[in-house]
Write a structure and sequence with these properties.
heterodimer; A: about 250 residues; Alpha-Beta Plaits; Rossmann fold; five-stranded parallel sheet; 9 helices; about 30% helix; about 15% strand; B: about 500 residues; alpha+beta; Cytochrome-c3 Hydrogenase, chain B; four-stranded antiparallel sheet; four-stranded mixed sheet; 15 strands
Chain lengths: ~250, ~500
Amino acid sequence: MFRSIAVRKSQGTQYIADLRAAKPAGFRGKPVINEAACASGCQACQAVCPSRAIQLMPVQIDLGRCVLCGDCEPICPSHKLSFDNDVKLAATSREALVVSAAHPDIDPIKVSKALHKRFGRSLKLRSVSAGGCNGCEMEINALSNVNFDLGRYGIDIVASPRHADALVLSGPITRNMAEALQICWDAIPEPKLVIAVGACAISGGVFADSDALDREFLDNFKPALYVPGCPAHPLTFISGIMDLLGIAG
Amino acid sequence: MTTAQPLALLALRDVAPTSLHELTQLCSQRLQAGERLLTLFGRPAPELGANIIVVTAVLQPAQGAWVILRATAQRGEHYRCLTAQYPAAQIFERELWEQTGLFPDGHPWLKPVRFEGDRQQHMADYPFFKVRGQEVHEVAVGPIHASVIEPGHFRFMCLGETVHHLEIQLGYQHRGVEGLLLRRPVWQLTPLVESICGDSAVAYAWGYCAALEFMSNQPVAPAIQASRAIALEMERVAMHLATLGGMATDIAFLQGGATYGRLRTAIINASQRVCGNRFGRGWIRPGQAKPLSEALQQDLTQTLRAFAKDFAQVNQLMLAARSVQARLHGTGRVSTQAAQDLGLVGPVARASGVALDARTQLPGAVYGHAPLPMLTEPGGDCWARMRLRMREVDASVAWLLQLLGDNTLDLSQSGQAQSSIPAALQPEALCVSLVEGTRGPVLQVLETSATGELRHYKVQDPSTANWFGLAFAMRDNAISDFPICNKSFDLSYCGNDL
């Protein structure tokens, strides 16, 4: 009894009060591309990128592919690339995830009136890992811990797809998981949405070139929200879903 | 004095491969003498002929250097299996068969490990064991499970509530990692290597970098090694906390779940302040590690000191709770003998009294400089696995505080990259690299061609050997104890599936 009280006392207050304002110290988040001119013929950043996230002339980084490894930053002779700790990387369209010097920010998410009305006070999530490395899975788990406590907004992870409103997809979708993913999706009652979490789910990430993938599912069911990262930071997920559902916070 | 390293390099020109029969005979003799089979794998060898398979076995004697054996075989060749006599070989022989077609005659459970290649999406072609009899029933769980967790299928064969046998079928996470590792420049693989098993990114990245540095004769400075070891122990603390939190939650000891959860947050956020990522991604690169400035050293020290106090407090609460004791004592027991016979590794083996930890047995420079104790627990049950994880966290935290306070290491200099990297790799060489990660030995074996190109990259996660241990632990236990047994093992799906 006294031990329990002591643990409770040392636990203190752990939740992050303002999830939208939180900027995690040290996080290698949004790529920042400055106006510096590229060295003639230089392709160093593109060559080192493990997930083909970089386009040249002008330099663009696709956060749907980028694994935030940061390897392009030191290799650039023009010091054109860096990363800041902005976690607000989520978007509702694939195109909005591409950043460049001219388009430095990800397009802000517009509140969906339909989703706000239906799920704004209660959204139940069913997670499916389809080839994930347990990075995104652990971060999805962290959504419900005492720090992030997404449950405070009525957003919870549920066990049965029958109880779910959304499928949270992580991993590049392996051929060996394609059928189970489809069965799970079919078991979720309408209306429902897909949330793609992490570079793997969005684009295949570092596994995009593998012949062990079957990504047809995403051709048929377009995600309502893309949550970049490798793994996706819990705050990227949270700020994205709050914006999409129009949760005031 | 040279310290035994968890690295070995074999110049393939100096080795005359034996026949497959001879290789397995030699393995058999060495296993009989008490050596451990670290790995056994094969690859098609088109450079030697259209139908040639090269087989590599690595054995670990109780003392001294690893023994590396090589053989060539014809595609489809049969040999007498090792598994019938040495169950620890079961998973290696299954994988060898799955990847090369070499056929282990007499293998009791010849089923694909991960359903790769042509066997993708053909899991239904390989039936499960059947238990027959009145009142016998089966329970099928997965691949998708109730919580947020990777997929795998569990087939329980039960009499009432009691599990007679559990068959575990994996492969759902198969992404074709080993093939992808050969497609990009060999020095630029770290982000992919960090994604083989994302919760052990540091262990994998270190093992990969150590192999390349060893094969190109580019040893890194002690400060870089120390920074890498600090990353690894931070990862171990964080992952053990995840397991302890999961165990607490699985037995509805919610205060434990909440507290271990927030303690883990503090640790992984500290890692993020060093390297930009909560999972240690980016901390390690070939020839490099993130520098630990004076400010970061102080930051880590303060974080760990505050952590140690609260961790001890919640451990006391957990260990003293009778409900916890009642659920964990005697549950999912694996005896020392069984753990040895099955070739279990890592904390799972140590919790069954098997003294096996590369950090003390092959310490290398850093763990030679600052040794860690070999920790074991005799019980072999869920309680022992929980206790061991608590003690390993304590040991790692004490070790981290010691290293962070060690002025001889010059940790702030660990950012100095090795300027001669990338460098040429030794041609026709085989490098075996091992890092004792959270779950046990992460093994990576790299082989180069005559021109120094990477020819084969073998990855072996510690979980691959341990999954059968979980199945074994469930025998004669109640099916309702599966979640806690599973969590106490805390094995990797993607590490197995590759």
